[in-house]
Design a protein that fits this description.
The complex is a heterodimer of chains A (156) and B (451). Chain A has helices spanning 7-30, 41-44, 51-58, 68-72, 77-97, 108-131, 143-146. Chain A has 156 residues and is an all-alpha fold. Chain A folds into two domains: 1-30; 39-146, Multiheme cytochrome fold. Chain A starts with 6 loop residues before the first helix and ends in a 10-residue tail after the last helix. Chain B has a domain at 53-340: Flavocytochrome C3, Chain A, domain 2 (Orthogonal Bundle), CATH 1.10.1130.10. Helices cover 51% and strands 4% of the residues of chain B. In chain B, the strands form three sheets. Chain B has a two-stranded antiparallel sheet. In chain B, strands 3-4 form a two-stranded antiparallel ribbon. In chain B, strands 5-6 form a two-stranded antiparallel ribbon. Classes of the chains: A mainly alpha (156), B mainly alpha (451). Chains A and B meet through helix 1 of A and helix 1 of B.
């Protein structure tokens, strides 16, 4: 219950919370936070270190048909948002604190999803390959092992 | 009432901490955005006379920071940047270099920051008289040459070569510096060492390209090797004026260099034990690299020895020049999609194989010395031993070409193995040629195992 004696303290606290919300909103806007909900490839280079990937994607064979999200994200809304949240959290923590391995390498789960996305579009082309016993569903050959440069520049 | 007050206080503190953190994040994002926009803030004006790297460091703090770290000394399995005495790790070298300054002191070279200090401290300059030629590479000498030559760098360079080392040493203050590889106005890569400028022009001439000027005609990627090739090469001091010269007029391969030396009738010294006129290879890294698969694939020295690294929003090339084995993630994994452990194993396997071959080649060489000595004791003349002495020269140069080259064969694994195979064969041929002149059983130095 708010009494007269602590009313001023409540005002002060409300002011502080307002300040935090305002500052947070500005930081979110300054960091182009909304862009991360989009499909815009430029959003992926917001944190600068992806610039060479973005630049090389623009010269790659896939740039007229697929943006970053087409290959790197799931295609259903909820899994897509969850994957963005998971990677977004990792990326921002690592980039802000500057503790990440160099060269940057894709995590196995992300590599697997990218591979699934290759097949999603190219299934007709690769169904014969996949039906070979050695390349069964559990032992797919990794598309980008050979087709390393189709998406963007250096694959490490 | 008490509890609600505490709750208010707690909430206020939490909000304050959150505000603090959000502000930190905001300034961090701001800083990264600034970095991404402007990589370079010119604070001091640099000129052709700015030798001191600290001045350059005011404009390029990240690169300067790396440069300063070349004081670090760290040993790798076969090399690195720690000044260990090679004469102790491989005692055969004392006999191989007998009668030459390298039998007094043959320490592993340290990083760029020590290039002048190491030259001051080696017994080779303290106990023997050396010319000013050494400063062609051991110091940042371009402004000193310009002054000495009255504006003409080439003239000043030739004058300094002819001076005694101790006298020339007073004209320079710094080891390898920024100025040696970068244009102070544009920061573009450039080569400044006269020996290299003339040498690479000679190589190109042998390939049918006349008047080659690397500063005007080389691509940026070529320059990322040429700047290193300014010094990490085989050279000799030509004539009485001791002009630093790269023996490249016939090409960069060991037999092409050797045939050049034979043609100009050059020898570094007369071997004290056998009397053969022999050659000392210096550190032909540029030549060896040029025969390897990395050079063939367009990979420059700087790609592995100064790989790009990320600092904040920036990408800078690492000016802490060092063995890639000390920086495998950036040096190798940028191109090779394997683990650092795997790449280290591959490199060290190559080195180990070459080290074993090198040990055999040195054993063969030392046993050739034994054989020649036995023939001399039995009364063989210089004329009779001519063939053996010639074979010693050719075997010894090959052996040293790999030994002095600072990669234990890695820069061109098959080429290094070919050279060592030839060295072993020539040394054994020399033994056969000398064995004709004596019948006594030779007390041969027993073979040592690898290093």
């Amino acid at each position: 219950m708010i009494t007269r004696s602590n009313r001023y303290q409540v005002y002060a606290l409300s002011g502080l919370i307002g300040l935090l919300v305002g500052l947070g909103a500005y930081t979110f806007q300054f960091a182009q936070g909304l862009s991360y909900f989009s499909n815009d490839p430029n959003a992926c280079a917001n944190c600068h270190i992806m610039r060479e990937h973005l630049a090389s994607w623009q010269k790659s064979s896939h740039h007229t048909r697929a943006v970053c999200n087409d290959c790197h994200m799931p295609h259903q809304l909820l899994p897509k948002l969850l994957t963005k949240a998971d990677n977004g959290w990792n990326h921002s923590v690592k980039f802000t604190l500057q503790n990440y391995g160099d060269p940057i390498r894709i995590r196995p789960a992300n590599a697997e999803r990218t591979h699934e996305n290759c097949i999603r579009c190219h299934l007709d082309l690769v169904s014969d390959i996949r039906s070979l016993p050695a390349h069964s569903r559990t032992q797919d050959v990794d598309c980008v092992h050979c087709h390393a440069g189709v998406g963007h520049g250096p694959r490490r | 009432m008490e509890s609600s007050r505490w709750r208010l206080a707690g909430l206020s503190i939490a909000v304050a901490i959150a505000t603090f953190l959000v502000t930190l994040l905001l300034t961090n994002i701001f800083q990264r955005k600034q970095e991404a926009q402007q990589a370079y803030l010119p604070l001091v004006r640099l000129s052709e006379d700015t030798v001191d790297p600290a001045e350059w460091g005011k404009n390029f703090p990240r690169q300067y920071d790396g440069y300063k770290r070349t004081v670090d000394t760290e040993r790798t399995r076969y090399g690195g940047s720690e000044a260990f005495q090679k004469l102790d790790t491989d005692p055969r070298l004392r006999r191989i270099f007998e009668g030459y300054a390298f039998s007094l002191d043959y320490r592993e070279e340290r990083g760029h920051a020590y290039s002048l200090k190491d030259q001051d401290e080696t017994e080779r300059t303290k106990k023997k008289v050396q010319p000013g030629s050494c400063l062609h590479c051991h110091a940042s000498a371009v402004p000193a040459w310009r002054k000495l030559g009255g504006g003409d760098i080439m003239k000043g360079f030739e004058l300094m070569c002819a001076m005694p080392f101790q006298e020339a040493r007073k004209l320079v203050d710094h080891p390898v510096t920024c100025l040696d590889c970068h244009d102070p106005k544009t920061m573009a890569l450039r080569v400044t060492r006269p020996g290299f400028i003339r040498g690479i022009s000679a190589v190109k001439k042998s390939q049918g390209v006349d008047n080659y000027d690397p500063n005007a005609m080389a691509t940026h990627q070529e320059m990322r090797s040429y700047v290193c090739g300014q010094c990490h090469v085989e050279y000799y001091f030509a004539g009485d004026k001791k002009i630093v010269t790269y023996p490249w007029a016939k090409g960069l391969k060991v037999e092409e260099v050797e045939s050049y030396y034979d043609e100009v009738k050059f020898s570094d010294w007369k071997h004290a034990e056998t009397g053969a006129s022999v050659l000392k290879a210096q550190h032909p890294e540029f030549e060896m690299w040029s025969q390897g698969v990395h050079a063939r694939s367009g990979v420059a020295c700087a790609d592995c020895h100064m790989p790009y690294m990320r600092q904040g929003a920036l990408k800078v090339s690492d000016h802490h020049v060092r063995s890639p084995l000390l920086n495998i993630e950036r040096a190798c994994l940028t191109c090779h999609p394997f683990s650092a452990q795997e790449m280290k194993l591959r490199a060290e396997t190559i080195q180990e194989r070459n080290a074993k071959l090198l040990a055999r080649a040195e054993d063969a060489l030392v046993q050739l010395f034994d054989e020649i000595k036995a023939a001399r004791n039995a009364g063989a003349t210089d004329e009779q031993l001519q063939e053996s002495l010639r074979l010693q020269r050719t075997a010894q140069f090959r052996c040293d070409f790999v030994n002095a080259e600072n990669s234990m064969g890695f820069h061109a694994p098959q080429e290094a193995a070919r050279i060592l195979g030839e060295a072993i064969d020539y040394a054994r041929q020399g033994q056969v040629a000398a064995a004709r002149f004596h019948s006594a059983p030779v007390k041969r130095t027993s073979a040592r195992s690898a290093f």
